[in-house]
Write a structure and sequence with these properties.
Layout lengths: L3 H15 L4 H7 E3 L5 E3 L4 H9 L2 H26 L7 H16 L4 H15 L13 H8 L2 H27 L6
Helix pairs in contact: 4-5, 5-8
Length: 179
C-alpha cells in the first residue's frame, strides 16, 4: 500500500478491532462483581441492577412471552397479509403486534390454558400440518382482539394508506434530478 492516508486508516481500524483484546481496555470497561455478574461499561449498571432486582418468576414469564410470540407473530403476519392492506400493511402489523402483546398480559383462564397447550404442542416438534392448535391461532386472535383493537387497526390502516398515497403523489410531483 503506497497511499499514506489508507495506511493510517487501516492502522486505526486495526487498533479499534484489537482494542477489546487489550488488558488495559478490559480492566477499564469490564467489572466482574463477587456474585458473578459482568458489567460492560457505565451504562450497563442500571440494567444490571434491574436484572438483579427482578424476581425469578419475571424471567420465567418473559420467556413464556418470547416462546409464545415466536409462534403467534408469524401467524399474525400471514393472517394480516391475507387482508391485502397494501401500503398500510407494516403499520397495521406493528399495531396488531402491540395490541396482541397487551392482550396476552390479561388472558382469561381458558385462554391461558390454550396458550400453554399451544406451547406444549410446539415443544413436541410435530410437522406443521399435524399441529392442531397452531391451525386454530386465527380464531384465537378473534377472541383476543377487542372492539377497541379492531377500531385501532382500522384507523391505522386508513392512516397508513393515506400516508402512502400522499408519498406516492409527492414522488410523482417532484421532478427527477438530472445531472
Amino acid at each position: 500500500m503506497e497511499d499514506p492516508v489508507l495506511v493510517e486508516q487501516l492502522a486505526k481500524a486495526n487498533a479499534e478491532l484489537y482494542r477489546p483484546c487489550d488488558d488495559e481496555w478490559i480492566a477499564e470497561t469490564v467489572h466482574i462483581e463477587g456474585d458473578g455478574w459482568i458489567e460492560a461499561g457505565v451504562l450497563a449498571k442500571p440494567y444490571v441492577a434491574m436484572l438483579k432486582a427482578a424476581p425469578p418468576d419475571a424471567f420465567k414469564r418473559q420467556l413464556w412471552y418470547v416462546r409464545l410470540l415466536s409462534i403467534l407473530l408469524p401467524e399474525l403476519k400471514i393472517w394480516l397479509q391475507s387482508w391485502d392492506l397494501g401500503l398500510s400493511f407494516e403499520q397495521v402489523y406493528l399495531e396488531a403486534q402491540r395490541r396482541l402483546y397487551e392482550n396476552l398480559k390479561q388472558l382469561a383462564p381458558e385462554q391461558q390454558t390454550w396458550m400453554d397447550a399451544l406451547l406444549d404442542e410446539n415443544d413436541q416438534r410435530l410437522p406443521v400440518e399435524e399441529r392442531v392448535l397452531r391451525s386454530q391461532v386465527v380464531p384465537m386472535f378473534l377472541t383476543l382482539l377487542t372492539q377497541d383493537d379492531w377500531q385501532s387497526l382500522a384507523d391505522v390502516a386508513a392512516q397508513g394508506m393515506a400516508q402512502g398515497v400522499l408519498q406516492k403523489a409527492q414522488q410523482e410531483i417532484t421532478p427527477p434530478v438530472t445531472v
